[in-house]
Amino acid sequence: MLRLTTASIAAGIALLSVPCLATPATETVSYYSVENPLSQARKEVISLHLNSLAPNRDSVVIINGEEAPSQTAGDKLLVQVKLPAETKQTLAVHQLNDGSLQVDYPAQTYAELAVRVGGETDKEGNYSGGRYHNAQAMQLPATHTIGNKLFKYEGFGWESEQVGYRYYFDERGAIDIFGKQQNGLSLAHTGLDGGDYHSMADWGMDILKVGPSLGLGAVGAWLDNRLVKPEQVADMSVTIATGPLESSATVTHGGWSPDSRTVDLTTRYSIRANSYLTRVDAQAGDLEQLATGIVDHGVQVLTHTPDDGKWGYLATYGTQSLNDDKLGMAIFFPINAFDSFQQDEHNQLVILNNSAAGAHYYFGAFWSAHPQGPKTIEQFKVELANEIDKLNSPIRLKPTNP
Predict the structure, then answer these.
(1) Which of 14, 73, 183, 331 gets the most CB atoms within 10 Å of its CB?
(2) 206 near 198, Cβ under 8 Å?
(3) Inter-CA distances, 26 with 18, 52, 233, 392, Å
(4) pLDDT digit string (tens) for 14-50?
């Protein structure tokens, strides 16, 4: 294993800046054109399919003579790009022919399921003692009860530096928000014994009252004009993947019977660097329709379903955080999968048509206490419009010549 050093990176950059030099025989270099079609600057993570390169091997990415953070994920390479408005740049991907790189970049995302190990239980089955350790995979124990402190903050979480989310790893199956009042990663230090994430800390706090709702963005079925949550299942399990540019949690509800059918519901929640949005990819067998939504706190509801756009949204904004201040929440969905908006006792809902490939959408939370958070509904509408613009006009990527 060859570890990349600062000196070797500098040498590589120097070679790139000298004209008419051939690519060293030790490297394979692939070139891509990346273009921002929007009239706003963008800092995003893009995904390249490594068709001509070796999968599962780290790469060094150079853009305009500067190294860009990257993350290898199977046959994909994630790259963080910074593009001015309406510009095109060339991206060069370097891999070793006769070795493998180990490229380490500072973490900008994180995911975890922390389970208590080495503790003890009382007669009610509640855990104490021992320590929390991160698990890569976990099946929900049959003996688990809500609030027994087996898991840190009652489930698993994922975050960018801008916002964090947690999933109640039990029959509730809802998603909560960890709002941040400063940028940074905070989940690793949240939910430890003796702490209280419902009170304001330097990083922020839990800001959403979920109750019996979906919270923000969790998945259910839409059957006979009602929401059916995956509460009664044969088993639940989760796998965690954490990386510098993208982290994710994939939860499976096995043996779910929302009606006479029995299906497995598998949902991947992923977040990328410098983003408030979680992407949701749900597979739910032959169910015709899925539902997602936002807990209904009686604040203003905003919807967007353009005839000429690829993406729409359902959003709410108002004084609805546990800190008694302004919070905006939104679900962004592809128009071609949209069926209708609905409402029940606890949720504002989006109904999506399921397909053999499943369903996908994004959700995001925008807290007014964050330095860039919207302080008014007008600012929130601008944030929504910016996210829709980026979804409708993704960064363009294609192979090119040097």
Answers:
(1) 331
(2) yes
(3) 18, 16, 53, 40
(4) 434 444 566 788 888 999 999 999 999 999 999 998 7
DSSP H or E stretch at residue 290: strand 289-295
Three-state DSSP state, 10: helix
| CATH class of the domain defined by 2-105 | mainly beta
Where in the chain are the domains? 2-105, 109-371
The set of long-range contacts for 248-257, using a CB threshold of 8 Å and a minimum separation of 24, is: 248/111, 248/158, 249/111, 249/113, 249/156, 249/157, 249/158, 249/167, 251/156, 251/167, 251/169, 253/173, 256/230, 256/232, 257/232
DSSP 11: H
Over the chain, what is the mean pLDDT? Answer: 92
Q: If we measure between CA atoms, which residue out of 142, 138, 131 comes closest to residue 155?
A: 138
Express each pLDDT in 152-175 by its tens digit. Answer: 999 999 999 999 999 999 999 999
CATH architecture under which domain 109-371 falls: Distorted Sandwich (2.70)
CA 49 to chain centre: 20
Condensed to tens digits (0 to 9), the pLDDT of residues 182-197 reads 999 999 999 999 899 9
Q: For residue range 237-292, list pLDDT tens digits in order.
A: 999 999 999 999 999 999 999 999 999 999 999 999 999 999 999 999 999 999 99
pLDDT(5) > 80: no
Number of Cβ within 10 Å of residue 288's Cβ equals 12
| Dist CA 87 CA 251 (whole Å) | 39
Among candidates 82, 22, 33, 28, which has minimal Cα distance to 60?
28
Look at residues 42, 108, 105, 18 and name the one whose alpha carbon lies nearest to residue 68: 105
Mean pLDDT value of segment 368-396: 97
The answer to pTM > 0.85 is yes
Question: Residue 399 class from Cβ within 10 Å (0-12 exposed, 13-18 middle, 19+ buried)?
Answer: exposed
Rounded CA separation 337/288 (Å): 11
| DSSP β-bridge partners for residue 363 | 278, 331
